[in-house]
Amino acid sequence: SNVSFAATNACGDEKTPCPVDGGSYHLAVPDGAPGPSGYPVLIHLHGWASSGRAVLRNKQLITTANQRGYIVIAPTGQKSPWGKRDWSVRDGADRPRRDEVGFLKKVLNDVAGRIPVDSENVLLSGFSRGGSMVGDIACSAPETFKAYAPLAGGFWAPLPPRCAGPARLFHTHGWADGTVPLEGRRLGRSRMVQGDIFAGLRIWRHTNGCSRRVAD
After folding, report:
1. What is the pLDDT of residue 78?
2. For residues 196 and 68, what is the distance between their CA atoms, to the nearest angstrom?
3. How is 1-49 classified by DSSP, letter by letter?
4. pTM attached to this predicted model
5. Which residue pairs from 77-80 have beta carbons closer than 8 angstroms and sit at least 24 positions apart in sequence?
């Protein structure tokens, strides 16, 4: 699908990112025709030091989403002061920050200007540091997209005392994750601390009014 797409568009494949104000993105379009409202959208945020180009190389992710009719949009994070691509996660660090909600809206609008997409049917997912960014957006601006899926990423310290409102959110995490451990951790000797994942989930339980326990 990407070969035929690249033949008719100047950007978006693995080689050529699509520029927008404040950054860039890559994308993968399904082979099938869009529905009456356009393609449903999966925006996926990469992990720390990765890129939108690298997301396109995750063939399992791309193929699975495309086969289900989703267009996959893979934005790229900004260069951080440490020289690696990163997202403006709420983590207490003092550094220049991009308005990620505004940036992602620009990305979606740019895609919608060239390809029929259903802008009301957008799932924002992300891995590790990208997953933390997904959680931050779902917490602070839940109305931005239809649903959220952080993978192996949670809130950083200080954890938000509360979130703005209910969000359709599915959090996936590995029990033995050593990079983003369930109990949280401090990064080396820095002041940056990954938050306790279960503490973050308690915030979501309260935000979404989840009073029933699964075992009941």
Report:
1. 96
2. 34
3. -HHHHHHHSSS-SSS-PEEETTEEEEEE--SSPPBTTBEEEEEEE--TT
4. 0.94
5. 77/23, 77/45, 77/46, 77/50, 77/51, 77/129, 77/130, 78/23
Query: What is the DSSP secondary-structure string of 36-96?
Result: TTBEEEEEEE--TT--HHHHHT-HHHHHHHHHTT-EEEEE-PEEPTTSSEE---SSS--S-
178 residue type, one letter: G
| Token pair recorded at residue 146 | 């239809």
- Alpha-carbon distance of 168 to 28, in angstroms, equals 24
pLDDT digits (tens, 9 = 90+) for 147-199: 999 999 999 999 999 999 999 999 999 999 999 999 999 998 888 999 999 99
Lookup: tokens for 43:
């925006």
Closest CA to 123 of 105, 104, 145: 145
Residue 104 gets which letter from DSSP? H
Q: Tokens representing 153?
A: 């990423």
Place of tokens 């396109």: 56
Q: Could you give the CA distance from residue 52 to residue 39 in angstroms, rounded to a whole number? A: 19
Q: Are 101 and 50 in contact (CB under 8 A)?
A: no
